[in-house]
TrEMBL record:
Classification via PROSITE patterns: SIS
Protein name: SIS domain-containing protein
Signal peptide (residue range): none
Key words, A-Z: Repeat
Alphabetical list of Gene3D superfamilies matching this protein: Glucose-6-phosphate isomerase like protein, domain 1
Domain of life (superkingdom): Eukaryota
Gene Ontology biological process terms, A to Z: fructose 6-phosphate metabolic process; protein N-linked glycosylation; UDP-N-acetylglucosamine metabolic process
Organism expressing this protein natively: Salvia splendens
Repeat listed as a keyword: yes
InterPro entries: GlmS/AgaS_SIS, GlmS/FrlB_SIS, SIS_dom, SIS_dom_sf
GO molecular function terms listed in the Swiss-Prot or TrEMBL record: carbohydrate derivative binding; glutamine-fructose-6-phosphate transaminase (isomerizing) activity
Length: 377
């Protein structure tokens, strides 16, 4: 580890530094892996660690993502693009739950173990279980030489650089990018999706610039944190690509600011959560442009009709159309390809969690009761 990597530099906390480092960490994650193409060569992705296994992966019956916490959320964010580009069934498993259930894992499965540290006990136990069941095991970790990196059949390193703050931030966005590249690599032999893949690759090249842009919301998120400082609870509604953003945003808020927060699948709103809505409970609704946008507009209308206290995250230029006559607070974010939007949308929520914690006077880098690497069950 380089000394300057461990220094906080101009930042007060590691979490703050790691949030602001994301344009660089994403660049490092993609370095040497995106091929620009040329006059007669298509744009593509090269994942060295997987190249001997891609044919097996393409033939697998299911892809099973396995992880805990933030790593699970990153896989959930990447699930739709993996389904779309691979055409393979993609299953999500929380590592401890898979082990508790002894859920079915088959020889024809590709299991993908996602872990920042590569040492998480629950994920390691699930890996042992998948190996016993004969599945192909792929590791996605940020730690070269970690147990998960060593025991999987093949691996992709996240290369986000060392993360010191207990709350995972830059590793999360890099994990999503790695899994988007995995989807591109698996789908690489399909002519019909070539246009879509090339658009995503162009989007990946531009992503660090877009993250730089969204980081400019820092002051705005600090102001929002000042407004929310004394709240008991914060709900985050998302769906589609941004269901994961809702879960991850809420996880960041709860783990560092010690405020209760829950990520909710907006499609489930009427099946229970609506009962919580009143004029006091703050609710973040993620309503950036994608195939679910009109459904999220209707969610906003319904929450507004029940006097919900809304903060709407929308695409640049959409504030007027989502704020129901200017009655909700809005946070505008830059637009990227739909499957990469979770990388952008989580940044304001990371900043909000950070500022809430500092304003509430808690330890942002080492939250109460938590450890960076959870090596016991
Ligand atoms: C939250 C966080 C945890 C970890 C989880 C798994 O910010 O960091 O939820 O994501 O403990 O850890 P890894 O990714 O190391 O397997």
């Amino acid at each position: 580890m380089e000394v300057e990597q461990i220094n906080k530099g101009k930042y007060e906390h590691y979490m703050q530094k790691e949030i602001h480092e994301q344009p660089e960490s994403l660049t490092t994650t993609m370095r040497g892996r995106l091929i620009r193409g040329g006059s007669c060569k298509a744009k593509s992705v090269l994942l060295g660690g997987l190249k001997d296994h891609l044919r097996t992966i393409r033939r697998s019956r299911r892809i099973v993502f396995i992880g805990c916490g933030t790593s699970y959320n990153a896989a959930l964010a990447a699930r739709p693009i993996l389904e779309e580009l691979s055409g393979i069934i993609v299953i999500m498993e929380i590592a401890s739950d898979l082990v508790d259930r002894q859920g079915p894992i088959y020889r024809e499965d590709t299991t993908v173990f996602v872990s920042q540290s590569g040492e998480t006990a629950d994920t390691l136990q699930a890996l042992e279980y998948a190996l016993e069941n004969g599945a192909l095991c792929v590791g996605i970790t940020n730690t070269v030489g970690s147990a998960i990196a060593r025991h999987t059949h093949c691996r992709i390193h996240i290369n986000a650089g060392c993360e010191i703050g207990v709350a995972s931030t830059k590793a999360y966005t890099s994990q999503i990018v790695v899994m988007a590249m995995l989807a591109l690599a698996i789908g690489d032999d399909t002519i019909s999706s070539q246009g879509r893949r090339e658009a995503i690759i162009d989007g990946l090249f531009d992503l660090p610039n877009k993250v730089k842009e969204v980081l400019k919301l820092d002051e705005e998120m600090k102001d929002l944190a000042k407004l929310l400082i004394a709240e008991q609870s914060l709900l985050v509604f998302g769906r589609g690509y941004n269901y994961a953003t809702a879960l991850e945003g809420a996880l960041k808020v709860k783990e560092v600011s010690l405020m209760h927060s829950e990520g909710i699948l907006a499609g489930e709103m009427k099946h229970g959560p609506l009962a919580l809505v009143d004029e006091t409970l703050p609710i973040v609704v993620i309503a950036t442009r994608d195939a679910c946008f009109s459904k999220q507009q209707s969610v906003i209308q319904q929450l507004h009709a029940r006097k919900g206290r809304l903060i709407v995250m929308c695409s640049k230029g959409d504030a007027a159309s989502v704020s129901v006559g200017g009655s909700c607070r809005t946070v505008e974010v830059p637009v990227v390809e739909d499957c990469l939007q979770p990388v952008i949308n989580i940044v304001p929520l990371q900043l909000l969690a950070y500022h809430l914690t500092v304003l509430r006077g808690y330890n942002v880098d080492q939250p109460r009761n938590l450890a960076k690497s959870v090596t016991t069950q």
